[in-house]
């Protein structure tokens, strides 16, 4: 509030009691006088009159604290300073201002009268303790005005907006817009200043509308044995706000599916119910399902709503018959059979059943799908299984005495279907494997002590066709029992030892007869390769390398010889290849002149050299060809016509060491004349012979072809008869004297 005062308004006068006897001077200090904001208050030094020089604004500075001083003409203080407090009186010079121009609030639909909605606030810069700053609120307008033009009211002092009428329905009116006015002077329309703002009230949704099915009966169908298939779409409507808990539908089946073959999922976008098959359905047992389905919202209905909380509908689902796969009974089928059965033995009959009772189909046909050892055959019509090989429990295809084979059963439906079944044959052991010694090599000492060697008997059969085993040495050759003895120390172990006091070091083959406990028993002779060696006091061999070398077997020697022969053949082939390569290289060198061979040479082109000083060439070889070919090898009396003629050497002009630039032209002309008159300078004025072919020729002279001597005796008139192409030739030779 600005105090509009004229310039130098006389505000107050200060007088001292001593101004009657003394000549005093008055001054004032403090904010507004000699401190910022300075010069607002001034005082007359003579009269002490305090004046205001500028308009005052209470909203900026509500009060000033000044101090007045009185001194004599010498500047001596005659009285103590006094405090002056200037309070600026407020004037209504500011309008109310809302904190926001647009206010947003919400209210649930169906709210009762008196429900709080929101609060709007305005401020006034004037003094709030006087009428200038006392505000009052009121609603100027409401849009839309349905169902009542006065759906809301406002507290004129606090700005709180509340509902005053019932009937808020989001499905009819989703938003209200109110114009709010704030007026100071306690709302006096005549003297108060006003301002307006907008209040936007959004009516929020509550669950006052349950979902409703769009039809009473829904239909669907599904092929049998299909899962994760949507068979029906259930559609509902809901007037509440989409994608809110009051709109989202939940579906549940109330009857018709006791075994839980169906489930209903909610589409999050359309809110539809998707009826899905979660368990296979057999047409032969269930041809149709009639389900009762209920739909309700995620949140319960609001209180006071007169609608039922859920909607119900019926879903009729038909099951479609399809061709199903045959199935074996039982699966797997277990048979106990002895190993070693002869080929062609009937093991069992393995058949399948077709679940399609309402389809006309022929008999099922059988085939083999998996038979790792190829031991079995199945009859394609009856399913009878016979053996095509000897069943062997010790086969690597048998695991834990069990052999597995898989068979296929196929029908002729549309489309054809097939099923698999597994036959498990538990093989009973028979005594068909003789025991053998393990390990097959052993070491012992030359002397009796210590010389015992432990051996173990192994048998691929199992009890009672395996151990305990009997160990013995054969009668023949006699040296075996003479040199060795064997003692059983357990059911599958025995100890081999020397019978004599000393046996020469070497490698000995000791046959051992091992018999199992089968009925009848089975025995075999295993050869144990024993290395007899010199031993130390600890019983360890000390000459193993010598024994191994001495006892090298025939097979090992043959293998070593073969390796040596192969190595020699490879060396011989390499030598032959190298010689052939050298011959080819020499042949190539004979065909190529070394001077013409440009391989690995550096060829230089456009080499101009370094001037006359480095042209150290013997040009006489070019001017005198006879120097290249010695006279000794030329035929007598034969001289090449392109050889240099024998004449006196001409005299060429000699250029002075330091010629005058004007003499260069004369020097060139004189040299040119001397070269033109030099008969010895190439090219020679003679026939050029490029190769000498020898004296004489079997061919006759070509001088007889000289047409100039006999041209007049020829008649060329016949050229005119050869056509226009020979007209020019006829004119040249047949034209008479012309």
From TrEMBL:
It comes from the Eukaryota. Keywords: DNA-binding. This is Chromodomain-helicase DNA-binding protein.
């Amino acid at each position: 509030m600005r105090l509009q005062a004229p310039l130098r308004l006389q505000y107050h006068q200060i007088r001292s009691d001593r101004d009657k006897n003394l000549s005093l001077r008055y001054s004032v200090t403090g904010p507004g006088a000699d401190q910022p904001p300075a010069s607002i208050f001034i005082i007359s030094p003579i009269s002490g009159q305090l004046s205001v020089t500028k308009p005052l604004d209470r909203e900026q500075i509500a009060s000033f604290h000044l101090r007045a001083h009185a001194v004599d003409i010498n500047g001596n203080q005659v009285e103590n300073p006094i405090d002056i407090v200037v309070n600026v009186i407020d004037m209504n010079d500011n309008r109310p201002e809302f904190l926001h121009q647009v206010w947003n609030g919400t209210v649930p639909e169906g709210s009762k009268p008196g429900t709080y909605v929101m609060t709007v606030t305005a401020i006034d810069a004037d003094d709030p303790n006087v009428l200038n700053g006392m505000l009052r609120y009121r609603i100027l307008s409401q849009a839309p005005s349905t169902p009542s033009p006065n759906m809301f009211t406002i507290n004129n002092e606090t700005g709180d907006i509340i509902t005053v009428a019932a009937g808020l329905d989001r499905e009819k009116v989703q938003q209200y817009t109110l114009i709010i006015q704030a007026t100071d002077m306690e709302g006096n329309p005549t003297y108060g200043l006003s301002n307006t703002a907008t209040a936007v009230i959004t009516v929020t949704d509550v669950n006052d509308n349950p979902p409703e099915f769009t039809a009473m009966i829904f239909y669907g169908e599904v092929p049998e044995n299909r899962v994760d298939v949507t068979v029906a779409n259930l559609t509902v409507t809901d007037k509440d706000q989409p994608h809110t808990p009051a709109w989202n539908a939940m579906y549940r089946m109330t009857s018709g599916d006791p075994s839980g073959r169906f489930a209903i999922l909610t589409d999050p976008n359309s809110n539809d119910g998707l009826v899905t098959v979660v368990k296979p359905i057999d047409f032969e047992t269930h041809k149709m399902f009639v389900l009762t389905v209920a739909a309700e919202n995620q949140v319960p209905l609001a209180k006071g709503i007169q609608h039922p909380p859920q909607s119900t509908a019926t879903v009729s689902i038909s099951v479609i018959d399809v061709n199903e796969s045959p199935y074996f009974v039982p699966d797997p089928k277990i048979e106990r059979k002895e190993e070693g059965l002869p080929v062609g033995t009937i093991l069992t009959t393995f058949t399948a059943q077709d679940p399609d009772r309402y389809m006309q189909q022929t008999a099922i046909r059988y085939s083999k799908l998996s038979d790792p050892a190829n031991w079995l055959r199945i009859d394609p019509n009856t399913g009878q299984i016979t053996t095509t090989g000897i069943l062997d429990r010790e086969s690597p295809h048998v695991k834990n005495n069990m052999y597995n084979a898989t068979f296929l059963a196929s029908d002729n439906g549309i489309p054809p279907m097939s099923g698999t079944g597994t036959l498990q044959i538990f093989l009973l052991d028979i005594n068909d494997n003789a025991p053998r010694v393990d390990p097959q090599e052993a070491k012992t000492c030359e002397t009796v002590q210590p010389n015992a060697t432990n051996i173990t008997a192994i048998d691929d059969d199992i009890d009672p066709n395996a151990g305990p085993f009997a160990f013995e040495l054969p009668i023949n050759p006699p040296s075996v029992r003479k040199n060795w003895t064997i003692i059983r120390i357990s059911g599958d172990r025995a100890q081999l030892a020397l019978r004599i006091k000393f046996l020469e070091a070497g490698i000995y083959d000791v046959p051992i007869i091992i018999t199992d406990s089968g009925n009848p028993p089975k025995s075999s002779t295993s050869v144990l390769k024993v290395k007899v060696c010199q031993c130390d006091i600890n019983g360890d061999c000390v000459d193993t390398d010598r024994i191994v070398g001495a006892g090298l077997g025939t097979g090992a020697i043959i293998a070593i010889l073969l390796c040596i022969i192969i190595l020699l053949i490879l060396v011989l082939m390499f030598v032959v290849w190298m010689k052939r390569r050298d011959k080819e290289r020499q042949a190539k060198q004979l065909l190529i002149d070394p001077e013409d061979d440009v391989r690995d040479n550096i060829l230089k082109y456009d080499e101009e050299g370094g001037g006359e000083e480095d042209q150290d060439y013997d040009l006489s070889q070019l001017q005198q060809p006879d120097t290249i070919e010695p006279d000794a090898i030329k035929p007598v009396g034969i001289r090449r016509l392109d050889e240099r003629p024998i004449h006196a050497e001409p005299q060429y002009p000699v250029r002075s060491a330091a010629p005058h630039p004007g003499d260069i032209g004369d020097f060139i002309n004189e040299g040119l004349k001397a070269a033109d008159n030099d008969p010895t300078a190439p090219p020679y004025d003679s026939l050029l012979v490029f190769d000498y072919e020898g004296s004489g020729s079997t061919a006759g002279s070509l001088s007889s072809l000289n047409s100039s001597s006999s041209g007049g005796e020829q008649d060329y008139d016949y050229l005119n008869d050869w056509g226009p192409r020979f007209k020019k030739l006829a004119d040249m030779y047949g034209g008479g004297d012309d």
